[in-house]
UniProtKB/TrEMBL annotation:
GO terms for molecular function: pyrroline-5-carboxylate reductase activity. Belongs to the pyrroline-5-carboxylate reductase family. The keyword Cytoplasm applies. NADP(+) binds at I7, G8, G9, G10, N11, L12. It comes from Aquimarina atlantica. The lineage of its organism: Bacteria, Pseudomonadati, Bacteroidota, Flavobacteriia, Flavobacteriales. This is Pyrroline-5-carboxylate reductase. GO terms for biological process: L-proline biosynthetic process. Residues 159-260 form the Pyrroline-5-carboxylate reductase dimerisation domain.
Length: 264
C-alpha cells in the first residue's frame, strides 16, 4: 500500500490518521503528517507515532497517497506549492469541501484525484464517508474506500452528488444534534435533571439509529412498533408534524444545499 502523507493535521486529519494507524493497512511509520501547527504535530507524533513535518515538499516526495486535509480557502496555496513536485503516479485524496476534481486537476493535471467527504463521527470511527472519482480511477478508488472504512462506513457516489453528501452527511451531524438538544430540553421540562435527560435522549437516539441500521428497516416501520393506537407516542408525533417537523427538516436540508452551491 506504500506511504501516505496527510497535509493538514487538524480536526479531520487527526481522525483519519487515527483510523489509518489502527488499521492493518498502514504502519505508523508509513504515515507523515504535515501541518503549520507544531502543537498539532506534537499531538499526532506522541499519540499515534506517525512522522511529522512542517515542510510539504520534502514530505510528499516519497508518498504514494497524498491526503489534502486543509480548509477550502487554504487549498489553492497547497496545490500551488506541490504542483511542480507531485509526480503522475501519486494519488491525491481531497477532503476539501466544495472543490471539484476538475478544479484540482486544473492545477495538477497529471494526478488522479479522489474526493472524500467524511464527517466528525470519524473521531469515534463512526464516520459516514462519501467517495467520488472520475471513471478512470478504479483500482485506486477501491483502496481509498478501504482506507476510509477504517473510520466508519463508506459509500461510493457520483461526484455531482458531493455537495448533497456534504449537507446530508457532514452538516447532518449538526442537524441530528439540534434534534437531540430539543429532546433533552423536553426531558428537562418534564422533570429530569439536564444530565439525566441527556443520558436518556442520547441512548435513545443510538438505539433508534441502530434499529434502522441493523434491521435494515425503514424508520416508519420502527415507529409503528412503538406507536400504540390512541397512545401517547402518536399524540406526540402528530403534534410534531402539525408543527411542521418533517417539513422544517426537509426545508432546512434544502436551504443548506442551496447555500453550499453558492459558497466558493
Ligand atoms: N471537520 C469535518 O467534519 C469535515 C468533514 C468533511 C470534510 N471536511 C473538510 O476537511 C478539511 C479539513 O477540515 P478540518 O476541520 O480538519 O480543518 P482544520 O482543523 O482547520 O485543519 C486544517 C489544518 O491544516 C493546516 N494547514 C493549512 N494550510 C497548510 C499548509 N499550507 N501547510 C501545512 N498545514 C496547513 C492548518 O493550519 P492553520 O490552522 O495554522 O492554518 C490546520 O491545522 C476542510 O476542507 C473541510 O471542509 C471537514
Amino acid at each position: 500500500m506504500n506511504t501516505i502523507t496527510i497535509i493538514g493535521g487538524g480536526n479531520l486529519g487527526k481522525s483519519i490518521i487515527s483510523g489509518l494507524v489502527n488499521s492493518d493497512l498502514f504502519e505508523a511509520t508509513d504515515i507523515t503528517v504535515v501541518d503549520k501547527s507544531k502543537y498539532n504535530l506534537k499531538e499526532v507524533e506522541e499519540k499515534l507515532g506517525v512522522s511529522t513535518s512542517q515542510h510539504i515538499i520534502a514530505s510528499i516526495k516519497n508518498a504514494k497517497w497524498v491526503i489534502l486535509c486543509v480548509q477550502p480557502r487554504q487549498l489553492d496555496a497547497v496545490l500551488q506549492e506541490i504542483k511542480d513536485t507531485v509526480t503522475a503516479d501519486q494519488i491525491l485524496i481531497s477532503t476539501v469541501t466544495g472543490t471539484s476534481i476538475a478544479e484540482i486537476n486544473a492545477v495538477v493535471p497529471n494526478n488522479k484525484v479522489v474526493r472524500v467527504m467524511p464527517n466528525t463521527g470519524a473521531a469515534k470511527k463512526l464516520s459516514m464517508t462519501c467517495i467520488a472519482a472520475n471513471e478512470d480511477v478504479k483500482e485506486e478508488l477501491t483502496t481509498v474506500q478501504k482506507m476510509f472504512d477504517t473510520i466508519g462506513k463508506t459509500l461510493i457516489i457520483e461526484e455531482r452528488l458531493m455537495q448533497a453528501a456534504t449537507v446530508l452527511g457532514a452538516s447532518g451531524i449538526a442537524f441530528f444534534l439540534r434534534f437531540l438538544r430539543a429532546m433533552i430540553q423536553g426531558g428537562i421540562q418534564m422533570g429530569f435533571h439536564p444530565h439525566e435527560a441527556q443520558i436518556i435522549a442520547v441512548q435513545t437516539a443510538i438505539g433508534a439509529a441502530t434499529l434502522v441500521a441493523e434491521n435494515g428497516t425503514h424508520p416508519e416501520r420502527e415507529i409503528d412498533k412503538v406507536t400504540t393506537p390512541q397512545g401517547c407516542t402518536i399524540e406526540g408525533l402528530n403534534e410534531m408534524e402539525h408543527q411542521g417537523l418533517s417539513s422544517s427538516v426537509i426545508k432546512g436540508v434544502m436551504a443548506s444545499y442551496e447555500k453550499i452551491n453558492t459558497i466558493k
